[in-house]
Design a protein that fits this description.
By secondary structure, the chain is α+β, with helices and mostly antiparallel strands. Helix content is 37%, strand content 36%. The protein has a three-stranded antiparallel β-sheet. A hairpin with a 4-residue loop joins strand 4 and strand 5. It is elongated and about 60 Å long.
């Protein structure tokens, strides 16, 4: 990994590999790389298999990260709109009629 990854990412891997060997537990790593497709986010998991073996699983989580950011942005916009409304909006869980949400204008 040291030959392929940037130094700061290699250092993350080095630290998590040592933790996995010491604690015998899976260690997560999140990092970002510049690729031909632009900046890409990755999640790696260093998995302790036995005293002589580790396994590393890596997946591209760029889409997940982008979706999380967009979802948070939309949530903040919706909260801003609802908080400024003078109208009453509420949400009720059915069946049972459990109240889930009221706009601040009901207070």
């Amino acid at each position: 990994y040291k030959q392929v990854l940037p130094a700061e990412v290699s250092e993350l891997f080095e630290a998590q590999i040592k933790k996995a060997q010491k604690n015998e537990e899976t260690q997560p790593i999140e990092y970002r790389l510049s690729t031909q497709k632009g900046k890409q986010d990755y999640e790696a998991r260093v998995i302790h298999m036995n005293d002589n073996q580790l396994m590393v699983m890596i997946r591209n989580i760029t889409l997940n990260k982008t979706s999380e950011k967009e979802l948070l942005k939309t949530k903040q916009q919706l909260e801003s709109i609802l908080n400024e409304m003078n109208d009453v909006v509420w949400s009720v869980k059915m069946p049972g009629g459990e109240h889930i949400f009221y706009t601040p204008s009901t207070e």
